Amino acid sequence: MKSKTRSATGRLLYAQSGGVTAVINATAAGVIQTARAHRVPVYAAHNGILGALREELIDTTKETAAAIAALRHTPGGAFGSCRYKLKSLDANRAEYERLIEIFRAHEIRWFLYNGGNDSADTALKISQLGQAMDYDIRCIGVPKTVDNDLMVTDCCPGFGSVAKYTAVSTLEASLDVASMADTSTKVFIVEVMGRHAGWIAAAAGLAGEGPDAAPHIILFPERVFDEAAFLAKVKATVERVGWCTVVASEGIRSADGQFLAAGSTDAFGHAQLGGAAPVLAALVKEKLGYKYHWALPDYLQRSARHLASKTDADQAYAVGKAAVDYALAGMNAVMPVIVRTSDAPYRWKLEAAPLDKIANHEKKMPDKFISRDGFGITAAARRYLSPLIRGEAPPPYGREGLPKYVQLKNVAVTKKLLAFVR
Amino acid sequence: MKSKTRSATGRLLYAQSGGVTAVINATAAGVIQTARAHRVPVYAAHNGILGALREELIDTTKETAAAIAALRHTPGGAFGSCRYKLKSLDANRAEYERLIEIFRAHEIRWFLYNGGNDSADTALKISQLGQAMDYDIRCIGVPKTVDNDLMVTDCCPGFGSVAKYTAVSTLEASLDVASMADTSTKVFIVEVMGRHAGWIAAAAGLAGEGPDAAPHIILFPERVFDEAAFLAKVKATVERVGWCTVVASEGIRSADGQFLAAGSTDAFGHAQLGGAAPVLAALVKEKLGYKYHWALPDYLQRSARHLASKTDADQAYAVGKAAVDYALAGMNAVMPVIVRTSDAPYRWKLEAAPLDKIANHEKKMPDKFISRDGFGITAAARRYLSPLIRGEAPPPYGREGLPKYVQLKNVAVTKKLLAFVR
């Protein structure tokens, strides 16, 4: 029987972790299509590593080839994601024993974890279980994060699309502001994602070049927010150009270390932010008296599959494919990373990098990417960023004017174990 | 000489007014291309009616055919817009005399004013000047507003594109929230434009159908905000579906008539709003304890030419063309309006409607478009809205990954008069 033959060679478990992106499902498509080509059945964990701990597994073999292909243009996380970080083996051995129990019960031989820094850490810990717990499991990390802050890889799948969304939206809204500035809004502020690294804010800089082109001011978390210098530049820009577009990272902080936006903390203990834009707007209104508008696209920016970068969508698919190739080749504790071999023409390839070089590290914007006054990007930043937003990869649209995003059946695998109580 | 011949027949003056849209320049393309076909030279007023009062005119004959064609896919207002309402003839005769003086000096025989309710009022006043001031001027209003609140016309150019943006963004962000809800955001709130009419909020309803599909709650300015009913529905939705998407119009008010978002007033005396979403989010957090995110796309929604509705882009072009046809046929004080002749298949045509039926009126959402509980749209609303977001009309993209939006030369016409001092 077919299923018998398959079971004998084991299954591959794929899980999505952390904040999802416009193209994480393209990675899922790369994983599942490649595994299918090798006749390896794929289970997906429901809601990331939590699905594995809870034995909530999804049988992707129940999905049609067309549905899996449609993942390539569907945003969000098709199997659910989670914000949950495994403790160390010493601190919570029971969780790891549970995972091995699940893997054994379902003959999981390969585990692919698709996420950012924290997920690379989880993947690294699981990759070390084989020896520690005498079960043959290979674990591959698969890169994903709109924050673009993973080490080693030249860029992160998910970032190019939010970068393109941010650059295009900044350009479009600035055309709007330019037409209205005579009698209406003079200062427009967009707040973008990026807790500790200003990659997304920097990408807005691709919208224009030269001192009079929008965005006129970019506020990076890598630079202390200097109120006086900011206001002086807003004023000078409005007086010279007639209006001013500001792009602010959510993570900007004043000299005393306080975030401009107050916030709570997420499951990883990260501050959860939002709301620097209205603070800046109030400042502009109070100190300069200019009429303002502000925007905070929030999830709209990272889910905007309709405006995905083709470079990004291609890379997202490729890392999924490579991760399966690595796993089936017997590799362990690695991640496929993007290596840039040329800026112009832009060329890239994939390589396997050890997870311990990536887990828990965070890549900041290089100093040389931020202009001397701290409010813009340099030519070096443009050279780096520009290829990442190139090309369009629009989803197919239906007759009703909406993209044809797929909803998988997500058939649950029958549980074999008792519930896990932590 | 060519210019002599042209002068003899007079010029057409085109001006953009009020908040701009993703497709108002498509109307400009319709105007200029049609006038060129009739060998009528077009001047554009810089920043709407103010440009006419200040004699700041732009000679569009200096633009190439390619540049004018590119207007069809460029957002914002290519000639600048303004928020400025002419007083009545009795209240400020000097302004009207100035306009006639400008028209006479530049041989303007046709004036096309592209805007919303207030602009239709300005157009109507100018159309009455011919008799009052003994100068042969024909004035045509051209419809434009993302608010979709003009009377007579079935819909307004500009609305279909912001409707499509809102429906697609709601769909995409909801896929994101659905994947994260287990350990992260459970309630996502998007605030959309719409001061007094909930047309844009209603369009978000096209993202899904049925009680479990996003958006689960739409808050209309046509309904008093009922905190208890809202919270009860959020709670029931999270408990049933696992998460909840809320789309809120900026104009929602509580029973005492207060806007949820505090605000200032614009030049027309309208309240300028923004910030209902964070108020709702704080409410959800405080009363229900759910983790939330909120988005406020602001200008991004009305300038998103990259996601324009083809229906809308086509209608925007068509009203520009029709306005020139009406003007050259000697009509006065009318506006080309969209008449829907069939829902399925969707069919429409243009007709000339008298400006006095449109000026200063405001069309609200019909009661029958809002579901009985006040939190959703009806089948009748879907029938009306659905055709308006149909079809895609993406701009061409350049090699750098950005849309190829045109920047006109905007060559100023030499002034012939002394400055006007009001």
TrEMBL record, chains A, B:
Q: Could you give the subunit structure recorded for this chain? A: Homodimer.
So what does this thing catalyse?
beta-D-fructose 6-phosphate + diphosphate = beta-D-fructose 1,6-bisphosphate + phosphate + H(+)
Activity regulation description: Non-allosteric.
Q: Which organism is it from?
A: Dyella choica
Binding residues annotated for Mg(2+), in chain numbering: N117
Q: What is the lineage of its organism?
A: Bacteria, Pseudomonadati, Pseudomonadota, Gammaproteobacteria, Lysobacterales
Q: In which pathway does it act?
A: Carbohydrate degradation; glycolysis; D-glyceraldehyde 3-phosphate and glycerone phosphate from D-glucose: step 3/4
- Which keywords does UniProt give here? Cytoplasm, Glycolysis, Kinase, Magnesium, Membrane, Metal-binding, Transferase, Transmembrane, Transmembrane helix
Which residues participate in substrate binding?
Answer: T145, V146, D147, M193, G194, R195, E250, Y299, L300, Q301, R302
**What superkingdom heads the lineage?**
Bacteria
Q: Which family does it belong to?
A: Belongs to the phosphofructokinase type A (PFKA) family. PPi-dependent PFK group II subfamily. Clade 'B2' sub-subfamily.
Report the Pfam families cross-referenced here: PFK
Q: Which NCBIfam families match?
A: PRK14072.1 (NF010675)
Q: Which residues cross the membrane?
A: 12-32
Name a biological process GO annotation.
fructose 6-phosphate metabolic process
Give the matching InterPro entries: ATP_PFK, PFKA, Phosphofructokinase_dom, PKF_sf, PPi-PFK
Task: Say yes or no: keyword DNA-binding present.
Answer: no
EC numbers for this chain: 2.7.1.90
Q: Which residues bind diphosphate?
A: G19
Q: What protein name does the entry list?
A: Pyrophosphate--fructose 6-phosphate 1-phosphotransferase
- Active site: which residues? D147 (proton acceptor)
Mind listing the GO molecular function terms for this protein?
6-phosphofructokinase activity; diphosphate-fructose-6-phosphate 1-phosphotransferase activity; metal ion binding
Q: Where is this site: Important for catalytic activity and substrate specificity?
A: D118
Any one GO CC term of the record: cytoplasm
> Which metal ions or organic cofactors does this protein require, according to UniProt?
Mg(2+)
